[in-house]
Specification:
Chain lengths: ~300, ~375
C-alpha cells in the first residue's frame, strides 16, 4: 500500500511537468492546426536562460542560493522570471518567423518546420552556451528535506512541482473560461471563420497564445530542471514526445484532456517502472501501447470532440 | 530529335558536374555554390529560368530517363573510382528508396508517418538475422520486405481509424517502441552493441568485397553496392510509378480529395488504406536489407527519430507526390551533411536552418507535383 502511494506521488510529479507541456501543444494545435514539435526545445531555451542568470549572479560564489535571505530570493526570482520571459518571447518570435508565413501551406509543412526550429535551438545551445555539450548542474533551490506521512516519503520538490502545476492549472482554467482572451481563443478553436467575421483578431490571439503556451513550456522545463537538478541541451525532445502523447490521449485542442492525458502518462510510466520486473526499460513501450489502445477505442482522444470531417 | 539529343547531353554533363562537385568543391567554393543554388531556389524572380529548363526535360521524358540511367551507370567513372563518394551515393540511394516508400504514405494518402525509421529497422534486422543464418541476400531481402509489409499492415490496422495527426503519433510511438525493443531484446538483437559481421553479398561467385574488373578499368569494391542500390532504386521507382498510373493511383487521388465520396462509390476505405500503408512499408524492408549489408554493422543508433525525420524531410523538400522530386530530395539531404562537414560542429545547426528557410520559401518542395496544383489539402 505504501509502495503504491509512493509511486503515485512520483507519478504525479512527472504528470505535472508533462501536463504543462501538453497544454501548449494541444492549444497550438487547436488554434493553428499544426503539431509543434519544437515545444520542448522552447522549454530548454527558457531553462538555459534561467541557468545563465543563475550562473551570472552566483559567479563570485558569495551567495548561498538555498539560504532564506532577501538577496537569494531576489536572485531566484530573477532567474526563474528570465526563464519564463525568454521562453515566451522565443515562442512569439518562432510563431512570427516560422509558422505565420506557412499559414496557407498544408499542416505537415509546419510540423517539419518546427522540427527544423528544434534543431536550431538544440544545436545553438550545444554550440554557443559555455560547455553546452555536457549536462549542467542546475542550482538546487529547493531544500532536499522530506516529510514522511504514514510511510510515504514526500520531498519538498514533489510538493513544489505538484503545487505549482495545480495553481497554474486553476489560473489557466480561469483564463480560458472567464477572460476576454479565453473567450476569443475558444471561439477560434470552435470556428475560425466565424470568429474572424465577428471581429476576433486571430493574429493577436495566436501571438498571445504562443506567448502563454511557451511560458508554460518554460515553466515545465524549469520544474523539470529543479526536480532533477540537471539540464542538458536535448532535454526538450523527451518533453515534446511525452507532452504530445498526453495531448493526443486527452484529445488535441482540449486543455482538460491534456491534463487527463498527462496524469495517465505519468501513472503508466510510474506503474510500469515500479511494479513490472525490469519494467523501467519498457516504460515507453507501455505508454505507447496504452496510447494505441486508447486511440483504437476513441480515435479522437478521451475528451476530444467527435468531428464528422475526419474519416 | 536534335532537342532530345541536347537534353541527353545536358543531363550527362549534369552528372559529370555533379561528380566534380562532390569530389572537388570544398570550403568557400562550396559555400558560394550552395548560396547560388539557394538564391535560384528561393527567389521567385529567377524561378522562371529554372522552370523553363525543367519544362524542356518534361517535353522529352524518354530521352531524360535514358540519359539519367546512363549517367547513373557511368557515375562511378565520373567520380574517378573514389570509394568514399560511391559509398555515400549508395547510402543516398537507400534513403531515396525509403523516401519513395514514405511518399506512398504521405504523398498518396496523406498519412504523416513519423516512425519510418522503425520500419527501416525492422527490415534491417529481419534481413540481417536471416542472412546470418546462412540465407542468400535475395532471400533475406524478400523476407525483410515481407516482414515490413506485414508490420506496416498491422500498423495500418491499428491506426487507420485515426487519421492525420493521430496517425503521426501512433507511428512516432511505433518508432520509439521498435528502438527500445532493439535495445532491450539483447538475445535477438545484441542491444546497444549492434550486430557486426553481416555477411557480404555474393552472387555467382562474385562477392561485394571484390573489385569489378572490366578489363579497361578496375572499379573499387564499393561499386558493387552502388549498382545493387541503383537497380533497387530503379525497381522501386518503376513499381511506385506503375502504382500511380493504374487504378490504385486514381483511387489514391480520389481518397485524398474526398474520402466519403470514394466510399460511396464502393471502395472499402479502411482496407484500402491498410493495404496502402503495407505497400509503402515494403520499401523500408528493401532499404533496410540493402543498408545492413552495405554497412555490415547495424545498431539502434541507425534508426532514431532523427532518421525518420530525415526521410520525411526528403519527401517534403523534394516535392510531395512527385517521385522524381522525392528521389532528388533524398539524395540532396543525404549528401548535404557530408558536404557540410567543413562546418564542423555547426553542421546540424546549418541543416536545421536550411530546412526552415527552404520550407518558408518553397513550402511545396523543390519540384512540386504539377498535378497537385489543382488539389486542395
Amino acid at each position: 500500500m505504501d509502495l503504491i502511494l509512493q509511486h503515485l506521488v512520483n507519478a504525479l510529479a512527472l504528470s505535472a511537468v508533462y501536463a504543462l507541456v501538453a497544454i501548449g501543444i494541444s492549444l497550438f494545435f487547436g488554434v493553428i492546426g499544426i503539431v509543434n514539435l519544437a515545444h520542448g526545445d522552447i522549454a530548454t531555451l527558457g531553462v538555459f536562460a534561467s541557468l545563465a542568470v543563475f550562473q551570472f549572479l552566483l559567479a563570485g560564489g558569495a551567495m548561498d542560493i538555498t539560504a532564506l535571505s532577501a538577496p537569494a530570493a531576489m536572485a531566484t526570482l530573477a532567474a526563474l522570471a528570465a526563464g519564463l520571459v525568454v521562453a515566451a518571447l522565443s515562442g512569439v518570435v518562432f510563431y512570427r518567423v516560422a509558422f505565420f508565413p506557412l499559414r496557407a501551406a498544408p499542416p505537415i509543412i509546419g510540423l517539419l518546420c518546427s522540427v527544423g526550429v528544434g534543431f536550431i535551438i538544440r544545436e545553438s545551445i550545444l554550440n554557443f552556451y559555455p560547455n553546452g555539450r555536457n549536462p549542467q548542474p542546475f542550482p538546487a533551490i529547493i531544500p532536499p528535506d522530506l516529510i514522511e506521512i504514514g510511510g510515504v516519503i514526500i520531498q519538498y520538490k514533489h510538493i513544489f512541482v505538484i503545487g505549482t502545476a495545480v495553481i497554474v492549472m486553476f489560473a489557466l482554467a480561469y483564463c480560458v473560461e472567464r477572460t476576454r482572451f479565453g473567450r476569443a481563443m475558444r471561439s477560434i478553436l470552435n470556428n475560425r471563420e466565424v470568429a474572424q467575421s465577428l471581429g476576433v483578431s486571430t493574429f493577436k490571439v495566436t501571438v498571445a497564445l504562443f506567448a502563454l503556451g511557451s511560458a508554460l513550456a518554460g515553466l515545465a522545463g524549469l520544474m523539470n530542471a529543479l526536480y532533477y537538478n540537471l539540464v542538458q541541451s536535448d532535454m526538450g525532445t523527451l518533453l515534446t514526445v511525452k507532452g504530445f502523447t498526453a495531448a493526443v490521449i486527452g484529445g488535441l485542442g482540449n486543455i482538460y484532456g491534456a491534463l487527463l492525458g498527462a496524469v495517465l502518462v505519468g501513472l503508466i510510466e510510474a506503474v510500469t517502472a515500479g511494479f513490472i520486473p525490469d519494467g523501467s526499460a519498457y516504460k515507453d513501450v507501455a505508454v505507447f501501447g496504452v496510447l494505441i489502445a486508447i486511440l483504437i477505442a476513441r480515435p479522437n482522444g478521451l475528451l476530444g470532440r467527435l468531428s464528422a470531417e475526419r474519416v | 530529335m536534335l532537342r532530345a539529343g541536347l537534353v541527353m547531353l545536358s543531363i550527362l554533363a549534369g552528372f559529370a558536374l555533379l561528380a566534380l562537385f562532390l569530389r572537388k568543391a570544398e570550403g568557400m567554393v562550396l559555400a558560394a555554390i550552395v548560396a547560388g543554388i539557394f538564391t535560384i531556389v528561393a527567389l521567385p524572380a529567377s524561378r522562371n529560368a529554372a522552370w523553363r529548363g525543367l519544362a524542356i526535360l518534361q517535353a522529352h521524358p524518354r530521352a531524360a530517363v535514358a540519359a539519367c540511367a546512363i549517367g547513373a551507370v557511368l557515375l562511378p567513372i565520373f567520380l574517378h573510382n573514389d570509394g568514399y563518394w560511391i559509398h555515400v551515393l549508395s547510402i543516398a540511394m537507400i534513403f531515396a528508396i525509403m523516401a519513395i516508400g514514405l511518399n506512398v504514405h504521405l504523398g498518396e494518402i496523406g498519412l504523416v508517418n513519423l516512425g519510418y525509421a522503425g520500419l527501416f529497422a525492422v527490415g534491417a534486422y529481419a534481413s540481417t538475422l536471416l542472412s546470418q543464418a546462412g540465407a542468400p541476400f535475395w532471400l533475406a531481402t524478400l523476407f525483410a520486405m515481407t516482414v515490413c509489409w506485414t508490420t506496416g499492415g498491422l500498423l495500418g490496422f491499428f491506426s487507420v481509424r485515426t487519421s492525420g495527426d493521430y496517425f503521426a503519433l501512433v507511428t512516432l510511438g511505433f518508432g520509439l517502441i521498435v528502438q527500445q525493443l532493439i535495445i532491450n531484446l539483447t538475445w535477438l538483437t545484441q542491444g546497444n552493441n549492434g550486430i557486426t559481421n553481416i555477411p557480404a553479398v555474393s552472387m555467382l561467385g562474385h562477392t561485394s568485397k571484390m573489385p569489378i574488373d572490366l578489363g579497361i578499368v578496375r572499379l573499387v569494391p564499393e561499386t558493387n553496392f552502388f549498382y545493387l542500390c541503383l537497380v533497387a532504386l530503379c525497381g522501386s521507382l518503376v513499381l511506385a510509378r506503375h502504382y500511380q498510373k493504374v487504378w490504385i493511383g486514381r483511387m489514391w487521388t480520389a481518397l485524398r480529395q474526398d474520402a466519403i465520396g470514394v466510399s460511396c462509390f464502393g471502395l472499402d476505405v479502411p482496407r484500402f488504406k491498410i493495404l496502402t500503408v503495407a505497400f509503402g512499408s515494403m520499401f523500408a524492408g528493401l532499404a533496410g536489407s540493402l543498408f545492413a549489408h552495405e554497412i555490415g554493422f547495424i545498431s539502434p543508433d541507425d534508426f532514431t527519430l532523427l532518421h525518420s525525420v530525415e526521410v520525411l524531410a526528403s519527401v517534403i523538400l523534394g516535392g510531395i507526390g512527385n517521385l522524381f522530386g522525392v528521389t532528388v530530395g533524398a539524395i540532396i539531404l543525404s549528401v548535404a551533411p557530408e558536404k557540410l562537414r567543413f562546418l564542423g560542429d555547426y553542421r546540424l545547426l546549418m541543416y536545421g536552418a536550411m530546412l526552415v528557410v527552404l520550407l518558408i520559401y518553397r513550402p511545396l518542395g523543390l519540384l512540386p507535383d504539377p498535378r497537385r496544383r489543382f488539389e486542395s489539402f
